[in-house]
């Protein structure tokens, strides 16, 4: 049995060392087990952050592991795209325990070591079992051909990719994408369309500062190129099956999953209002399409939100949160939010203050993951 309080205290002590923790872990892992190095990207900066986030998620739920099991199962199934196998988990566990012992100092007691061994054993078992089960159902990844690459302005591209075999997902899901120009680097993007008969997937990709994958996809990818697509992840924005009105708040390319949800809602309409924010009207890159759709569907309303400029029909000055709250009509809605972290945080607090049930706010945010 794991002592949850003791494990949390141990992690707090280790996590205080910041970036040194993942640096030590991966150095130990690759030196002791060089055979696993090929599973990881050449550039390890984002991978180091993922380790700390994953450990934090597990430790914060260690007193209720059932709550974190779905997360671990998705992680295990998704790790197949890296080539991770059940036999690799002991090497990771060895490096993890050595790292924890190193940064714990005198606080690393036999009891703490036993807690971590037990916790990691559970994590490894859940992830490996999920990977084995997924292997009987779906590929580890899908290859897909880029059939269209449309550049919008200097920092955005809309790609249409056709997987070579059927890739099933639900509107609101994310999929991870890797380019052969950036081997073993993956970034999450939300399809901007509901599943189609021709299996094509539309991706909205904005250049991110120092973003290796986004740079490859926006600047260097051309029709005919083949990308690698990972299994669907993140159920946060999947449409809930009810008849409640829908409020959508999107910032930038956070519009992509909303577009997919709107396509799904068109098959079974319910009152929906999308507030989409950008710096200027020109940056609302699907404005003509949204206006055309709104004109033909009385259940759907769209309001553009810009930081700079002047109000005009259908366009308001302000961020999506501010504009939506000015409109009111938030009580009784299901709210779906996607955008930069600051916008998502402001939306959640503002919606709760306006009377929206916190359990009815579904959100996802992009940032380091280049979503």
From TrEMBL:
One of the record's GO molecular function terms: heme binding
Globin domain segment(s): 1-132
InterPro entries in the cross-refs: Cbr1-like_FAD-bd_dom (IPR008333), FAD-bd_FR_type (IPR017927), Flavoprot_Pyr_Nucl_cyt_Rdtase (IPR001709), FNR_nucleotide-bd (IPR039261), Globin (IPR000971), Globin-like_sf (IPR009050), Globin/Proto (IPR012292), MRET (IPR050415)
Family as reported in the entry's similarity comment: Belongs to the globin family.
Catalytic activity: 2 nitric oxide + NADPH + 2 O2 = 2 nitrate + NADP(+) + H(+); 2 nitric oxide + NADH + 2 O2 = 2 nitrate + NAD(+) + H(+)
Record-linked Gene3D superfamilies: Globins (1.10.490.10), Nucleotide-binding domain of ferredoxin-NADP reductase (FNR) module (3.40.50.80), Translation factors (2.40.30.10)
Protein name as catalogued: nitric oxide dioxygenase
């Amino acid at each position: 049995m794991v002592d949850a309080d003791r494990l949390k205290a141990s992690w707090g002590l280790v996590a205080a060392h910041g970036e040194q923790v993942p640096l030590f872990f991966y150095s130990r892992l690759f030196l002791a087990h060089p055979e696993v190095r090929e599973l990881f990207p050449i550039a390890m900066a984002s991978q180091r952050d993922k380790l700390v986030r994953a450990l934090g998620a597990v430790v914060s739920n260690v007193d209720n592991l059932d709550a974190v099991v779905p997360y671990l199962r998705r992680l295990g199934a998704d790790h197949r795209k890296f080539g991770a196998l059940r036999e690799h988990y002991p090497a990771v566990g060895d490096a993890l325990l050595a790292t924890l012992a190193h940064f714990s100092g005198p606080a690393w007691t036999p009891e703490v070591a036993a807690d971590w061994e037990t916790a990691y054993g559970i994590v490894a078992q859940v992830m490996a079992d999920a990977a084995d089960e997924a292997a009987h159902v779906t590929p580890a990844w899908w290859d897909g051909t880029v059939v269209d690459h449309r550049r919008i302005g200097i920092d955005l591209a809309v790609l249409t990719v056709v997987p070579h075999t059927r890739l099933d997902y639900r509107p609101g899901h994310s999929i991870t994408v890797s380019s052969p120009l950036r081997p073993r680097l993956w970034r999450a993007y939300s399809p901007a369309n509901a599943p189609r008969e021709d299996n094509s997937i539309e991706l909205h990709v904005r250049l991110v500062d120092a973003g290796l994958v986004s740079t490859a996809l926006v600047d260097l990818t051309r029709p005919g190129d083949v990308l690698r697509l990972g299994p669907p992840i993140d159920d946060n924005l999947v449409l809930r099956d009810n008849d409640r009105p829908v409020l959508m708040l999107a910032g930038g390319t956070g519009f992509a999953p909303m577009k997919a949800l709107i396509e799904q809602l068109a098959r079974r309409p319910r009152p929906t209002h999308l507030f989409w924010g950008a710096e200027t009207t020109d940056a609302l890159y699907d404005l003509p399409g949204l206006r055309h759709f709104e004109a033909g569907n009385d259940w759907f309303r769209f309001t553009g939100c810009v930081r700079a400029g002047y109000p005009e029909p259908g366009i308001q000055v302000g961020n999506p949160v501010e504009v939506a709250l000015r409109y009111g009509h938030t009580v009784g809605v299901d709210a779906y939010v996607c955008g930069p972290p600051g916008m998502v945080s402001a939306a959640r607090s503002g919606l709760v203050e306006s009377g929206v049930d916190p359990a009815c706010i579904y959100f996802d945010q992009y940032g380091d993951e280049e979503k």
